[in-house]
What does this fold into?
Amino acid sequence: MQTTGTCLQVLRENNSRSGNPRYMIVVGDMPGTADVFYTPVNAGWVYGVNWENLAGKKVRVTHRLVRGRNTAENIAEFV
It folds into this structure.
């Protein structure tokens, strides 16, 4: 599935047991209608995203449901 919206917040979570970074991304366009996504454990693509610059920008998140959590498979700026 894909979700497009404004990146409202990016939070760094604890690293995985292997030491790789994990993030929580909040995406929405209207107050009260935000979706929360988590990067998967040990995903290599997270190193290619400039997380500090995503807040306030339009993004497209490709995601799937894994163990009851919206897990991001990819995130990109949406122009």
Observations:
- The chain has a mean pLDDT of 93.
